[in-house]
Amino acid sequence: MKVTARQLNRTTLHRQLLLQRKDLRVPDAIRTVCALQAQSAASPYLALWNRIADFDAAELDRAFADHTVVKASLIRITLHAVATEDYPAFHRTMASFLRASRLYDHRFKATGLSIADVDAVLPQVLEFAGQPRTNAEMEAMLTERVGVLPEPRLWWALRTFAPVLHAPTGGPWSFGDRPSYVASGIEPFDGDEEESRPLLVRRYLEAFGPASEGDIGQFTILRMPAIRAALAVLVDELETHEGLDGKPLYDVRGGELAAADALVPPRLMAMWDSILLAYKDRSRVIPEDYRKLVIRSNGDVLPTLLVDGYVAGVWRPADGGIEATAFHELSDEAWSGLAGEAAALVAFLADRQPDVYRRYARWWETLPYAERRLLSG
Predict the structure, then answer these.
(1) pLDDT tens, residue by residue, 76-115
(2) What is the pLDDT of residues 240-294, one digit of tens each?
(3) Peptide bond before residue 266 is cis, with ω within 30 degrees of 0
(4) Distance CA 31, CA 242 (A)
(5) CA torsion angle for 3, 9, 12, 16 (degrees, to 10)?
(6) In 28-67, which positions are buried (b, 16+ CB within 10 angstroms) versus exposed (e)?
(7) Rg (CA), the chain
(8) Where are the domains of the chain?
(9) Three-class SS string for the chain?
């Protein structure tokens, strides 16, 4: 079956709970969408606000506090919030890549330490992290173990691939600017990576399929032989569709495809929302002309306006409401829908951080736009 561009767009939004907010518990919603990008502490909260009916931010606070949802360096060497039961397999799948990304990096090599040195100190790190530890505490402990280094990159490397979680530190979004880390309780490199890899690929396809091999690689940064091996293991659980380029798109068997004409409500998406980053072909959600406007060269991914299922601009808090910058002219109906979302978002942010994402305001000075409106809260 050949799928159309709009059908792929609608199917992504359907599986990502963006066609209609759902009445789900926080861990169930996160499992449904696979993982939530958590580079900014606020982003998992805004992502769930867009996806859960009557979302109560306190429920995510509690989920982080009681470890039913955990935050860690995982997919694409970035911070993600995932359901706790998914963490072991996700970490096992990514650990060797995360380890190599740091230990073969010139910044780590400048320490003069060997990989054997790191392996030797890792059990001590995990024991020390039996209770939450700050960066400064971890650096001090490692200095006692290995001495003063010419470059302080040992903990920088370890905190990326060791099985440690970010421990809640308080603040409006559970995690502040000064992170704290705690051991996850799983053994480093425990279990079989080849057995865990198909689970991550399946979870990705449940949340983002149908998708190509390249899309899977974009989301996970797994190499193509590893992706193909995982797909081969899953072959009896999958079905394929014909993509726009004639190449196969993989999906879980029986995965629901949304109608191409499904109505899509406007949304004010969080920074780094996964729908903007989950595909090699960004045009599934981002028009090509806008890709470099919202995905910046330094890795920032701006909070976006989603209109008719596609990125149409960006937003930021402003005095009195939400400032919406549209890259093309929008209909009165679209503006009305965005105004309703803005009013709800202002109310949601009021008790947390009304000026969320303020540190990224510099990008707006150079953005082109067709319309810019202050949507009153």
Answers:
(1) 899 999 999 999 999 999 999 999 999 999 999 999 999 9
(2) 999 988 999 999 999 999 999 999 999 999 999 999 999 999 999 999 999 999 9
(3) no
(4) 27
(5) -160
(6) ebbbbbbbbbbebbbbbbbbbbbbbeebebebbbebbeee
(7) 21
(8) 1-280, 286-376
(9) CECCHHHHHHHHHHHCCCCCCECCCHHHHHHHHCCEECCCCCHHHHHHHCCECCCCHHHHHHHHHCCCEEEEECHHHCEEEEEHHHHHHHHHHHHHHHHHHHHCCHHHHCCCCCHHHHHHHHHHHHHHCCCCEEHHHHHHHHHHHHCCCCCCCHHHHHHHHCCEEEECCCCCCCCCCCCEEEECCCCCCCCCHHHHHHHHHHHHHHHHCCECHHHHHHHHCCCHHHHHHHHHHCHHHEEEEECCCCCEEEEECCCCCCCCCCCCCCEECCCCCHHHCCCCCHHHCCCHHHHHHHECCCCCECCEEEECCEEEEEEEEECCEEEEEECCCCCHHHHHHHHHHHHHHHHHHHCCCCCCCHHHHHHHHHCCCCEEEEEEC
Encoding tokens for residue 138? 């971890």
- The Cβ of residue 295 has, within 10 Å, a number of other Cβ atoms equal to 18
Six token digits for residue 51:
């996806």
Query: Which tokens is 1 given?
Result: 């079956």
Contact 324, 309 (CB under 8 A): no
Q: Which residues share a beta bridge with 268? A: 305
State the residue for tokens 């091999």: 213
Rounded Cα–Cα distance for residues 107 and 118 (Å): 14
Take residue 233 and report the two structure tokens written for it: 């293991």
Largest CA distance in the chain: 64
Cα 5 to the chain's mean position, in Å? 23
Asked whether the beta carbons of 73 and 161 are under 8 A apart, the reply is yes
Q: Is the Cβ–Cβ distance between 21 and 51 less than 8 Å?
A: yes
The one-letter amino acid at 331: S
Tokens of 67: 């470890």
Question: What phi and psi values does residue 36 have, to the nearest 5 degrees?
Answer: -115, 125
Residues in a beta bridge with 305: 268, 313
Between CA 46 and CA 310 the distance in angstroms is 18
- Looking at the whole model, is its pTM more than 0.90? yes
Q: CB of 206 within 8 A of CB of 162?
A: no
Phi-psi region of 238 (alpha: psi -120 to 50; beta: other; left: phi over 0): beta
